[in-house]
Design brief:
mainly beta; Rieske Iron-sulfur Protein; monooxygenase activity; globular; oxidoreductase; three-stranded antiparallel beta sheet
Length: 98
Amino acid sequence: MEIGTVQRLSERLGKCVKVGQMELALFRLSDGRIYALENRCPHKGGDLSQGIVSGEFVFCPLHDWKISIKDGKVQAPDHGCVKTYKVEIENGKIYIQL
């Protein structure tokens, strides 16, 4: 499913994209890789697209939980996981597999 274009994503800033009833957080890392996550922290439901990105992690804006952008795993000492979605880029367009 096409969800946007690469040029509309800023590096190291999240972007919220709605797909039906779902909200996804898209992230473009400084090396150009793009990741898609469920846009909801497992702790208190914080909007991950508004979080601070550092390396391959996003920090939830509500309580600073550290979550891997690559695999969705919450980092210790906290625990949990966010659903991730496979991203493919073709001719500058971003596609995800739901």
